[in-house]
Design brief:
By secondary structure, the protein is mainly α. The protein is built from 15 helices and no strands. 38% of the residues are buried.
Length: 240
């Protein structure tokens, strides 16, 4: 038998898988090979150390497609159990686990309670005193808001209203992340009183996005330096 891979090597492989998942042709190949299903099995069968090393790239790759989320959700019957166990064993992984559970919620047969718990974790942590965990919670919430099938869940629990004060406060460190979350959720905010069937995005939100994009375009070199080694969009551009 071959030598078992150590947790650091498994973590590097997971990060590579997350990076490759951004390329459509490779993503389709990985889906065909059931690569994401196998990753779910590695996560379930791994030690706490292995799970800690996998959990962040695991969450990151969920952003890259519904097919990935579906294959991971059905990759192992004990996936939810393993996620909950990791959250209990490693507090540093709590927000990552919550982000994964929320992202997978619409594809899981019975995820009402775990999704409810995940929402509570993210919404409480994003206002907490631990900066690293706070940033992680906001990043997870923004990524989940980018998934059309997850937005109705976020709207239902009032995320749009909860992040509005941060979007209204230009001095808040989470200002632009909150603005983006509201803009994303507005795309799925149903209203029977408009021609499009959705509630329009407030002009102030659109203005803030344009201002931020102007700022980014004029500071590209600085931003690229800040982004070295960062896997999160929010970590690259939006945190001071």
């Amino acid at each position: 038998m071959g030598k078992a891979l150590d947790s650091r090597t498994i973590s590097r492989l997971a990060w590579n898988l997350a990076t490759l998942s951004q390329v459509d042709s490779i993503k389709r190949l990985l889906l065909g090979l059931r690569g994401y299903e196998k990753l779910a099995s590695v996560f379930v069968n791994g030690s706490t150390e292995v799970r800690v090393g996998i959990v962040k790239p695991f969450r990151n790759m969920l952003v890259y497609g519904t097919e990935i989320r579906s294959q991971i959700a059905h990759g192992h019957p004990k996936l939810m159990e393993a996620l909950v166990a990791l959250a209990a064993a490693d507090s540093g992984s709590l927000t990552q686990v919550a982000g994964i559970i929320l992202a997978l919620g619409p594809t899981l047969p019975d995820a009402a309670e775990p999704v409810k718990a995940a929402n509570k974790i993210l919404l409480s942590t994003m206002k907490g005193s631990n900066q690293s965990m706070r940033h992680s919670a906001w990043d997870c919430l923004m990524d989940d808001a980018a998934m059309p099938e997850v937005r109705p869940i976020l709207l239902q629990i009032g995320v749009k209203e909860l992040v509005q004060p941060f979007a209204d406060d230009p001095k808040s460190e989470a200002n632009f992340v909150a603005v983006l979350i509201i803009a994303l959720l507005s795309a799925s905010d149903v209203s029977a009183n408009t021609e499009t069937g959705t509630k329009p995005t407030a002009p102030g939100i659109i203005k803030r996005i344009i201002e931020a994009l102007d700022s980014i375009s004029s500071n590209t070199a600085v931003l690229l330096r800040r982004c070295q080694g960062s896997a999160s969009i929010a970590a690259c551009f939006f945190w001071p």
